[in-house]
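Journal club side-thread
Mid-discussion, someone asked how the predicted structure for our own chain would compare to the paper's figures. Pasting it here so we can look after the session.
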Amino acid sequence: MPFPFFNINKKGKNMEMYIYKSEEEEIYNSKYHCHMNKKLAEWAISCMRKESPTSGELEPIKKKTIEEFDTFLKENKLNIPDESYYDAYYLWHMCYADYQKSLEDDKHRAAYIEETICDPDCEPTAVLACFKAKMDVMRVPIYWERFF
């Protein structure tokens, strides 16, 4: 029996269809199947902040390159499905922005990314859904047409 907060009703229909989405978001989702593309991931990363250890103020994180990410994937033997590549790139940066203490080395970062992307009791599109929820809570609009 699924938890009551899952988006599936008793007839097995996904309740996602009842959540309002702009026309631009629908176009984005039809092109990228509810996953991040490079432009969206890079913008999302540019919004990330971490607490400075010296001043305690929030500061932008240092964006890492795609080449560094590919090296990280190879060194940690991560096989990420193609459609989730930029979801994983976004999560990798989240490790540095939000989980500095609990994910302090590449081994733990790799495990977090793999477990999040390959979570068997969650939709593969959950990374984008979580990102959208964070932006909504912070009241940051997503202008989907920028990411086509």
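Post-session note: Strands lie at 49-51, 58-60.
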